[in-house]
Structures
1.
Amino acid sequence: MNNPKSPTQGAADVRRVAVVGGGISGVAAAHRLAESVDVTLFEAQRRLGGHTDSHSVWVEDKVYTIDTGFVAFHPSGHASFCQWLAQIGVPTQRTDMTFSVRADEEGVEYSTIGWRTFFSSSELLFSLKHWRLLWDWQRFHMEAPKAAEHQGLVNAGEYFRQNNYSERFVQRHMAPLCAALWAQSQASALDTPLQHLASIVQNQKIFQHPTQSLWQVVSGGASQYLEVFAEQFPGDIRCNSRVLRVLRTDSSVVLETEHESLEFDAVIMACHSDQALDALVEPTTAETNVLGAIKYMDNQVVLHGDATYMPRDPRNWSSWNARIDAQSGRSETTYWMNRVQGIRGPQFFITLNPQSTPKRIWTERKYRHPVLDADAYQAQQRRAQINGLDRTFYCGAYWGMGGHEDGFRSGVDAAEQLLAKLPSLSRSTGQGQGGYAADMGSADQSQGG
Ligand SMILES: Cc1cc2nc3c(=O)[nH]c(=O)nc-3n(C[C@H](O)[C@H](O)[C@H](O)COP(=O)(O)OP(=O)(O)OC[C@H]3O[C@@H](n4cnc5c(N)ncnc54)[C@H](O)[C@@H]3O)c2cc1C
């Protein structure tokens, strides 16, 4: 998707800005900047999108497009992103966020689809622990607005302990839910900062009754919005262009890829924080400390057709399904993509980090997620200490709760901060060396961002 079509390119009075990373944060930043400056968007992979990734499967002459990365959004929890989709004209459709939990050794299997699936057996109907789980869930919903504004660092697990939430609620509802939301292990899922969990529960109305759900997906797969963006974008999109070095001087920022080096007035680093730090030549101490504090973990995503990952009773099949392994105690999340994306046809499931190998695998991907623990939370509080200095701005979902809205908003914010600061910066000469020789064959397609 190399797309050098900027109408402003070459005009002497137009400022030149580079955006490094073509995930939602880089796309949002590039879109916001393009009205005012000459933008070059560098993406290391051969496709735009990062965690926005749709996979096409051919079955009996029909093509099904399944999202293996980002998929769903909510008008209140993803307000800016939703407005942008409407602005650029991307069609969307309704979905729901129903959730099931299966713990075979305890005989527990329930879903939030409705009363019948929540009390899916007579044992559950007469189980005080299960009624208590329901009560605790209602209670957490009521407490969420206050908890979302909690100052200071408390993780979700601590909060539940201190406030006498039941073990069943914590281990058989919230831990699998957090593991699904942040693709974490069951053990570390409850280390999630309380504010993050509470604001998601409050704003995104997760697990409302399906008929009331306002959750949406992009019709035809999330990557559709990338197509629309690329068609409308007046700047230069350079895929297969990993930025290896970012050198800040008094009068410019010089970016080096494998093929050449180019000079810009400013740069927005829209890759992950550790990738940004790796590319910076002579990072400041603050950059090293803040960007280096956030850890990442690889998550394997497998798209398959193996229904053994789902609840035993098909009436409990939900959009999100957690299966808790008796031996390891780990929860494994499987998304039922037919329900999520409204697909009729063969069954498509996506399992995060499966503990065994599913049958009928269509594709596998790896995505890196930020670990949003106490270190990350503290680094987020220090963003202003590095952002906008030395002509360098930072965006990415890692500055928030790791969701698409966090990425989108941080991209727009970085663009606006840059535009406000640009008049005070001296001009670069805009000179580059060498030319781009786009090598479409070298990227590894099996890897997500
Ligand atoms: C399986 C999965 C499901 C998800 N589902 C949802 C969901 O339903 N709803 C939701 O809100 N969020 C969801 N998320 C989270 C959210 O989509 C992502 O966190 C968000 O898209 C991240 O955007 P980003 O721009 O910060 O990073 P990324 O998407 O990772 O983009 C960073 C980009 O930078 C590029 N890059 C890195 N280094 C360089 C370099 N040196 N030079 C050039 N380019 C570089 C990478 O190749 C990548 O394309 C999901 C994430 C995953 C993985």
2.
Amino acid sequence: MTGWLLLCLARVRGPWWAQLLLATCALAVAPMALFLDAVGVFLREWRIVGALGQTETRCPRGHMVVLSGPSAAWTCSSCAYTYGGASGWGRCPRCRSVAAYVSCPCGLSIDNPVFELVDDAR
Ligand SMILES: [Zn+2]
Ligand SMILES: [Zn+2]
């Protein structure tokens, strides 16, 4: 929201007094915009931490899929590195990419909730 506010300010055209008035209004709401941005970042991180704490999930057919622990093993879809012990929702330890999904042994995919929350994964 802060970025949007600054972008609007940069695009303002018109007489100097209108620009000054708009800049004053923008400065008045800037603390609220920063606060809302901070709340958004906190909630996103909270959801990531919650997802990374999951030890298992279910596929659309209802099969239990273990996400972390000694029996969990993952192959990175970006670099093909195979690793275990880490969460299936987490980053590949080799290339640091986040998988968009994990696969159930039945063949169906399960969307990774972390993928949409991480900026560099898109
Ligand atoms: Zn990788
Ligand atoms: Zn399944």
3.
Amino acid sequence: MIYVFCALLGGGVLAAICVPLFRRESTVESAIIEETEWDLLLHKKEVLLGNIQDLDFEYKCGKLSETDYAQVRKEMTGEVAQVLERIHGIESSLDLDALIRREIAARKDTGKTASSVQVCPSCGSNNPTKNRFCAECGSKLKP
Ligand SMILES: [Zn+2]
């Protein structure tokens, strides 16, 4: 019974490994339009981790020799490491972009505040630049 189960699982693993390899060629172009490299990498990571899990299970079932298992697993973990590295690279560059955008937005805000508000010389309250007289104390504002 366990042999049948392992055979089925083994077939599933092979399909899971091979199908994306063949399918990738045709779908990658349409996928790029919708998905960023980031999304693709995250998906690839999930697939690779799943494959490693399946491989471990297959090895426990006794379908693989220890040397085969060690070699394939080494290749798979190497691939995962590459994917993780690229994800990490994108993450840190995304953080930089977000930081820069925040800085620019902050600058724009202060620029806007400075040009659209004038301070009353007698009471110190803020007034819109279009006001000719202070809304608080009625003093004449500088043009
Ligand atoms: Zn005033």
